[in-house]
Write a structure and sequence with these properties.
Distance between the termini of chain A: 83 Å
Order of helices and strands of chain B: HHEEEEHEEHEEEEHEEH
Mean pLDDT of chain A: 84
Oligomer: heterodimer
Helix content of chain A: 25-40%
Order of helices and strands of chain A: HEEEHEHEHEEHEEH
Strand content of chain A: 25-35%
Largest sheet of chain A: 5 strands, mixed
Number of helices of chain B: 6
Low-confidence stretches of chain A: 1-13, 37-41, 43-48
Strand order of the largest sheet of chain A: 1-2-3-5-4
Largest sheet of chain B: 6 strands, mixed
Number of helices of chain A: 6
Low-confidence stretches of chain B: none
Shape of chain A: globular
Number of strands of chain A: 9
Mean pLDDT of chain B: 90
Chain lengths: 289, 276
């Protein structure tokens, strides 16, 4: 009898006793939007020369202009805020701190602990407070992309915590999270081989859309050669530290897409450098000559 | 040298300033930090507000969803506030379920909403017994430098004033809701509650708007919430040193002044935000 009840409880949504609770079930109003007849929700783009919704070009390395600022969170060792189009994210870095567990690996090199979080109001459909598998996947991807860039052997027996919070998700959240996290690590003074910059694209039939918005990311399932790609690159060393690809694409398309992403990252590099220079200048006043 | 003394004897360091009736950051005992307010920056949320009280940064995003009204009040909607203190904002918070402080803050905000009647729940009902709005007010702290309760209430108020909910009506034939995203209406905000927090030092001195260092050294905390009609909505005093009646009266008067300042700021910001 007890087992049966336990099974039933597991099936229902996990009851969050630590938060103020609302109704058992609620739906987003977007589910009930009246579809106006005769006009499909997505306008199919067939010609290569047609522009995207925000005026950028298809099939060209045209990323959204990025605004980056370091040193916003006063409590953190290092922090960064990035805004690209409507995508807004903030990252803070704490550490190096003494690590709790002491096993073989920890004695030689430090550990990087990442946390990727989407705010509940960041997506069109509200994200519940309890982390789903999507966030865990993205956290793992973030960690794997950042790890090759940080000189962890210089911080034995320590851990460095990186916390990324997405305030508004308008596409390519992971790519910008990687860039934001690198800027925050640099702002914190953690030694790195190079900045890790992220860039993503959406393959839509014959052309690719670099740095897609949320609408562009949810592609049309009917046409073939659809997929998404996110690349994390160390620009000076020209090495790829992370690559995440979904969807079915032809071989040449994927190779071309990776090249486009790499170029996108390289173009991002000067902006990232400028941001770090400004933050250093703010922290350390110019010497009196 | 001052930095060394501050680390070794923080209480004595603060006491020396308090004797001269001022604080380490140069403020007077009754002075608030600079308050900055930014409204409507998150486009995916129905309403949003970002508040900076000195270094303390709080962002509130409100999303409206549809649900059946509660069984015991068929003509009311829901308003669900939640405060989150992620590890991002300070090293004292660990990842995982909300800790004690976050839960206490969420409950405080829920009480303020309930007691101050900031929004009538009847306004959130669309069709009695069938459909109502649920306003999920998610408040996140981005930088924890003390006095989050004040900042949370200002952020919540700002976000509520910024909320634009689409029109919904029920189609009689299909009995389903139909949402018109092109027509959006603001909420009817009846009262404007503003919180004012104080820290008690050494059982006698009361300072307004404590920073995180002052909070750690204080012997008691008290938060007073008033609305624009100079009425008292809530007084939150979780333990700590006892406070005499006249000191409490001083706190309430200061809170009333603060209410006027904050409402003035809020109105200025709302005028400057262009309507969508």
């Amino acid at each position: 009898m007890v087992k049966e009840v336990a099974f039933q409880v597991e099936r229902a949504m996990p009851v969050d006793t630590k938060r103020v609770r609302g109704p058992e079930e609620s739906q987003s109003p977007w589910l009930f939007v009246q579809q106006s007849r005769g006009q499909p929700t997505r306008v199919p783009q067939t010609r290569e020369s047609e522009r995207r919704a925000d005026g950028r070009r298809r099939g060209q390395v045209d990323a959204r202009p990025m605004f980056a600022r370091c040193g916003l969170v006063s409590q953190a060792k290092g922090s960064a805020y990035i805004e690209a189009g409507n995508t807004k994210l903030i990252c803070s870095v704490y550490g190096p701190r003494e690590t709790e567990r002491k096993d073989e690996l920890d004695m030689k090199a430090g550990r990087l602990v990442c946390a990727f979080r989407l705010a509940p109001f960041s997506c069109a459909k509200r994200c519940p407070w309890i982390q789903g598998s999507q966030e865990k996947d993205l956290t793992l991807s973030l960690q794997e992309s950042l790890q090759p860039g940080v000189c962890l052997h210089k911080y034995p027996r320590s851990q460095i915590e990186v916390n990324v919070l997405v305030l508004e998700n308008d596409g390519s959240a992971l790519a910008h999270a990687i860039t934001c996290a690198s800027l925050a690590l640099a702002d914190a003074g953690i030694e790195m081989y190079d900045l890790v910059l992220g860039c993503s694209l959406r393959q839509d039939g014959a052309a690719y859309l670099l740095d897609p918005t949320c609408r562009e990311e949810n592609g049309d399932e009917s046409t073939e050669n659809q997929g998404s790609l996110t690349v994390a690159l160390l620009p000076t060393l020209n090495q790829i530290s992370g690559l995440l690809s979904t969807g079915e694409m032809k071989e040449e398309t994927v190779v071309g897409a990776v090249r486009a992403c790499v170029e996108g990252c390289q173009r991002l590099y000067p902006a990232a450098q400028q941001c770090l220079l400004k933050s250093v200048r703010r922290k350390v006043p110019a010497p009196q000559n | 040298m001052a930095a060394g003394f501050k680390t070794v004897e923080p209480l004595d360091y603060h006491r020396r300033f308090l004797k001269e009736n001022c604080r380490p950051d140069g403020r007077e005992l009754g002075e608030f930090r600079t308050t900055t307010l930014n409204i409507g920056s998150i486009t995916t949320a129905d309403g949003s507000a970002l508040v900076k009280l000195g270094n303390t940064t709080i962002i509130c995003g409100i999303k409206g969803e549809l649900a059946a009204p509660p069984v015991d009040a068929a003509n009311k909607g829901y308003i669900v506030p939640n405060v989150d203190l992620p590890p991002l904002c300070s090293s004292r918070f660990r990842p995982g379920p909300p800790g004690e402080q976050a839960q206490a803050a969420s409950q405080f905000i829920a009480d303020v909403i309930e007691n101050s009647d900031v929004i009538q729940k009847e306004d959130l009902c669309i069709v009695k017994g069938k459909l109502s709005w649920v306003l999920y007010c998610d408040i996140m702290c981005l930088d924890y430098d003390g006095n989050i309760l004040d900042a949370c209430t200002i952020a919540l108020l700002g976000a509520l004033k910024n909320v634009r909910l689409p029109e919904v009506h029920i189609n009689e034939e299909t009995d389903l809701a139909e949402v018109n995203m092109k027509q959006k209406n603001p909420l009817n905000i009846t009262k404007h509650p503003v919180a004012c927090s104080f820290a008690i030092f050494d059982d006698t001195i009361i300072i307004v708007d404590p920073t995180v260092e002052e909070e750690n050294l204080s012997t008691g905390m008290i938060t007073v919430v008033t609305d624009e009609d100079e009425k008292l909505c809530a007084v939150h005093k979780p333990g700590g040193t006892a406070l005499s009646g006249e000191k409490l009266q001083d706190c309430i008067s200061r809170a009333i002044t603060r209410n006027k300042e904050v409402n003035k700021l809020l109105n200025e910001v709302l005028i400057s935000v262009k309507p969508k």
